[in-house]
């Protein structure tokens, strides 16, 4: 893996001195869980696609299975630093594979199940993947057949395994579970253990590199702030091939020695059923997950009595949704902000007053620092809009083979590309810098417009983007998904915004009603696709 080793070592001295990097790995935590509670359920994997099934794995079994995977990977030529890619849903095989990679010294490369030939071919080639694991079928799609179509372009790829069924185009995943001697490997806490491609809200994937120290240093303060422990049951509906799912649905439960419940296909009724059945205490997901679960619980009049925390990240949460969700779910709604490059950087606190809990994306976790700067790099006054920059223990160590894209300065500040306001240490994300709409030289506060529109009774989802205009440079278009049985006209939208005393310059000039928003699997709206749609419909 190519990265700036000298810069990492300089950073290491500071992180170790501060106590943020503790030089532990997930294997240390797995060993502790096996020693302390070997028969505790580590993973509950519920498959709802195709033939529904359920698999429960104890910590003792998780240790044994991952050891077999490690031995079989080594037997197939996978050595320290080699890449093992897995394009899997939230199945138990995902967790076993990552632990097996750690034991073999390999780099885990999770891939979103939505990727097809173009994305998959590029990512596997860049990673020089030696072993690939895919589903035999998932949601009706034949993954081994897809891999076969691109395999001649992947000279490094030596083995393809299929989980969940037999196929002529891949070896069975069970071959990796056959009894095999686990290699004696003690991972370097500063060695690369994860290669994660950014999820594609901007349309350009980059391979983010993380170590045990960068990933685990985020989770220690996260668990302390949310009061998490081994008695918790963590429900994960967000894809584990996304950083939110990987860190908080795979690494965090093993680190705590608690139980993880994995949902492979998101549907609000199934999410509610799993939370109730498994007595889940914590769940995490992007805004759509929170919105849909809240809507379902309100509509059915049912409850999730065990749930005490819903941590939502990936996109700013409309203030009205936070208030509604807290009332409907009876749980603390924790807003968080982070990226593939650094995990959760900010969260609200469980004891934050109503105003902060509902109108901010939180304050920095211990070990991380924040600042907001203007285009020239100067810090902006409190409450003013600027680019959010972060530095600290959980920042990644670079992009695979693309160092020129690493927007980290000599002092360690990483330019996130997100626009934000900060006041008294709390931030509010205002969108991506590329999402900003500049109308006649005036910056339109996109997130504020979206928040106002979200409060309209006919609107279920909304996203505002810019489209080219010869005179003003850009105009704004509101893409709206209406609630069931509701309609919304352009005149009704403008009348509503005028009634909210919004500046006329901020009111979108167009309204487009859509059945669904284009999203990444983690729930982020792909605004670059909406901008393309707006441009095409204008031409």
How does this structure look, described?
- Helix content is 33%, strand content 26%.
- It has three domains: 26-47 and 57-186, Rossmann fold (3-Layer(aba) Sandwich); 213-391 and 406-432, Rossmann fold (3-Layer(aba) Sandwich); 436-538, GMP Synthetase, Chain A, domain 3, CATH 3.30.300.
- Strands 2-1-11-10-12-13-14-15-16 form a nine-stranded mixed sheet, sandwiched between helices.
- Strand 12, helix 11 (287-300) and strand 13 (309-312) form a beta-alpha-beta unit.
Structural class: alpha/beta
Q: What's the total count of β strands? A: 26
The overall pLDDT average reads 92
How would you name the CATH homologous superfamily of the largest domain? ANL, N-terminal domain
The top-level CATH class of the largest domain is: Alpha Beta
Percent helix among the residues?
Answer: 25-40%
* Domains, number: 3
CATH-level-2 architecture of the largest domain:
3-Layer(aba) Sandwich
- Give me the side-by-side strand order of the main sheet: 2-1-11-10-12-13-14-15-16
Report the β-strand fraction as a percent range: 25-35%
**How many separate helices?**
16
Short synopsis of the structure:
This protein is of the alpha/beta class and about 550 residues long.
SSE inventory with pairings:
Layout: H1 5-18, H2 26-36, E1 41-47, E2 53-58, H3 59-75, E3 83-86, H4 92-104, E4 107-110, H5 117-127, E5 131-135, H6 143-150, E6 159-163, E7 171-172, H7 174-177, E8 192-197, E9 207-211, H8 212-226, E10 233-236, H9 243-256, E11 259-263, H10 268-278, E12 282-285, H11 287-300, E13 309-312, H12 319-329, E14 332-339, E15 343-347, H13 354-359, E16 363-364, E17 368-373, E18 386-392, E19 398-399, E20 414-423, E21 426-432, E22 437-439, E23 442-444, H14 446-454, E24 459-469, E25 473-482, H15 490-499, E26 510-513, H16 527-538
Parallel strand pairs: 1-11, 3-4, 3-5, 5-6, 6-7, 10-11, 10-12, 12-13, 13-14, 25-26
Antiparallel strand pairs: 1-2, 8-9, 9-19, 14-15, 15-16, 17-18, 18-20, 20-21, 22-23, 24-25
Helix pairs in contact: 2-9, 3-4, 8-9, 10-11, 11-12
